[in-house]
Amino acid sequence: MKQFKDRFIIGIDHGYGNIKTANHIFKTGVVVSDTEPIFGTNVLFYNGRYYLIGEGHKEFNADKITDEEYFILTLAGIAMELNSYGLTEANVYIAAGLPLKWVSQQKKAFSDYLLRASDVRFAFNRKNYHVRITGVNIFPQGFAAIQDTAAAMKGMTVLCDIGNGTMNVLFMKEGKPDPLKLYTEKLGTQQCVIAAKTAIQDKYHVNIDESIIEDVLRTGSADIDENWLNLIKATAKEYVKKLFDILRRYDYEPSLMRLYVVGGGGCLVRNFAEYDENRVTINSDIRATAKGYESWAYRLLEKADAK
After folding, report:
1. pTM of the predicted protein model
2. Which of 121, 126, 172, 255 is most buried when burial is the number of CB atoms within 10 A of its CB?
């Protein structure tokens, strides 16, 4: 969270699997109830209803404004950030983003969606909050994570942002984005989880909990039978092979270009891909995009104020 005069800029990376802010990360699952949940770590109360936050994750949907859940998740993210600084009331400026290929088409609609209630009162984990949403900026997802350092990048660089639902690819020359070479593919890490889960079901006829698969993808190991572990690893290797096949289809050439990987899927590349570590950079900070949104928004507000 950054402060600009009387406003607090809060960057929120609205992923399909996780919501990321500069200081927090939580799953996108939302369970709605008319009564307060007995169990649950994060409970938000808004407009007479209770929302249990972080139980599972949302299904992939290219349009994030079809229901109120991303707005509810945004309020939860704001509350977490404010709580980290001991605040319960604030003027908030939201800095968010969309996949590269969809920014131009969905920017206004998503901005309007996040501004649907400019003066909001709600409770989160039994603490009352009063938030005045004073503005919204929507940035290109992925690139925001490196926009502070992009100017130092020389030659050709391919930015690959691997999230839960999508993979975004952007080609850059001397650190500047090529507007004609940006792509969004539905090849997020959840596709790998589904493939591994299906492989386990087909071979062992067991419905494995996704959290076990996610542990393997994140760390390369898990406390399970070696045969099961090897099957999940083999599936992950097939996933990253497909990922690199797509990059090559878009003319990625490792000997001529550097690859910069951001997003939660970077751990799959690190753990299961074969690559030249001297030419591939993996940013392991899953909150880097949210932090980038804040820095970008701060500079824009500063520039506007100087006029």
Report:
1. 0.91
2. 172
